[in-house]
């Protein structure tokens, strides 16, 4: 079993829709959780991070962690075609990041 | 003024060959990493170096040998390339070791390796 599991998709939604991306993790020791965005043929870049349980909002993006169920979510409001990318969740383990498989998201104009 | 750069961007080679990928960061970071991303986009750490010292070697075959001549550079040499080595290899850097709170990792553009 992978330490961080993510539905690879692909996920395709119309412009303006609310997008929900989800991951689960298995290691109870994980405290920090990140979302990276990766455009085609580019390296991943940090989008948001959260600590422990709770929500964090940044513009149209909201990251949510529920440690009781080991569930990580990223919500995108008013999705734009420029949001089309692969989204990778990650958890911070011992001196390393553990990534999920990534969800490929396409926003259709 | 690219923060993390890698060369080459593309590498096509035959099975059994030896090849190297170079990485440089100009962010003044102490820690550098190599990741492998397979065809299903699964990104997995291979190595990390902190101040030129190997910190993580994530059960990578001995054919892979990282070398850090200084804090700003981390190269990856691969001997006797196999078909399964085909992937995108990403270099990354961070100010401190991942695990030191939320130390952001900055990724390079990747090197797409194809072994024929």
Which key features would you list for this structure?
heterodimer; A: 109 residues; mainly beta; five-stranded antiparallel β-sheet; B: 116 residues; seven-stranded mixed β-sheet; 11 strands; 54% strand
General description of the model:
- The complex is a heterodimer of chains A (109) and B (116).
- Chain A is mainly β.
- Chain A contains no helices and eleven strands.
- Chain A has strands at 4-6, 11-14, 19-25, 32-38, 45-51, 54-58, 61-66, 71-76, 85-92, 97-99, 103-108.
- In chain A, a hairpin with a 2-residue loop joins strand 6 (54-58) and strand 7 (61-66).
- Chain B is 0% helix and 54% strand.
- In chain B, strands 2, 4, 5, 6, 9, 10 and 11 form a seven-stranded mixed sheet that branches. A four-stranded antiparallel sheet of chain B has the order 1-3-8-7, with no helix packed on it.
- With 116 residues, chain B is mostly beta strands.
- The mean pLDDT of chain B is 91.
- The chains are: A mainly beta (109), B mainly beta (116).
- Chain A binds chain B through residues 8, 32, 34, 38, 41-46, 49, 51, 86, 88, 92-99, 101-102, 104, and chain B through 4, 40-45, 48, 55-56, 58, 90, 92, 97-99, 101-102, 104-110.
Termini separation of chain A = 37 Å
Query: What structural class should be given to the helix and strand makeup of chain B?
Result: mainly beta
Rg of chain B, rounded, reads 13 Å
Task: Give me the number of helical elements of chain A.
Answer: 0
Task: Give Rg of chain A in angstroms.
Answer: 13 Å
Q: What is the H-and-E element order of chain B? A: EEEEEEEEEEE
Q: How many runs of DSSP E, i.e. beta strands of chain A?
A: 11
What percent strand of chain B? Answer: over 45%
Structure classification of chain A: mainly beta
Number of strands of chain B: 11
Low-confidence stretches of chain B: none
Largest sheet report of chain B? 7 strands, mixed
Helix content of chain A: under 10%
Global outline of chain A: globular
- Topology order of chain A in helix (H) and strand (E) letters: EEEEEEEEEEE
| Helix proportion range of chain B | under 10%
Name the chain pair whose interface involves the most residues.
A-B, 25 and 25 residues
């Amino acid at each position: 079993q992978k330490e961080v599991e993510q539905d690879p998709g692909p996920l395709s939604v119309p412009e303006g829709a609310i997008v929900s991306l989800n991951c689960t993790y298995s290691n109870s020791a994980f405290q920090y959780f990140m979302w990276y965005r990766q455009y085609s043929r580019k390296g991943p870049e940090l989008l948001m991070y959260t600590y422990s349980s709770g929500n964090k909002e940044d513009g149209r993006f909201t990251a949510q962690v529920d440690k009781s169920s080991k569930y990580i979510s990223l919500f995108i409001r008013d999705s734009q075609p420029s949001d089309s990318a692969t989204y990778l969740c990650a958890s911070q383990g011992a001196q390393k990041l553990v990534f999920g498989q990534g969800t490929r998201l396409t926003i259709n104009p | 003024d690219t923060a993390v750069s890698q060369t080459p961007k593309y590498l096509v080679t035959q099975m059994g060959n030896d090849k190297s990928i170079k990485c440089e960061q100009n962010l003044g970071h102490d820690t550098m990493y190599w990741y492998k991303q397979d065809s299903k986009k699964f990104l997995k750490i291979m190595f990390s170096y902190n101040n030129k010292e190997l910190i993580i070697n994530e059960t990578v075959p001995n054919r892979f040998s990282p070398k850090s001549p200084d804090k700003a550079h981390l190269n990856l040499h691969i001997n006797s390339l196999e078909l399964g080595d085909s992937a995108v290899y990403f270099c990354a850097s961070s100010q401190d070791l991942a695990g030191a709170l939320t130390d952001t990792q900055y990724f390079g553009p990747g090197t797409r390796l194809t072994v024929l």
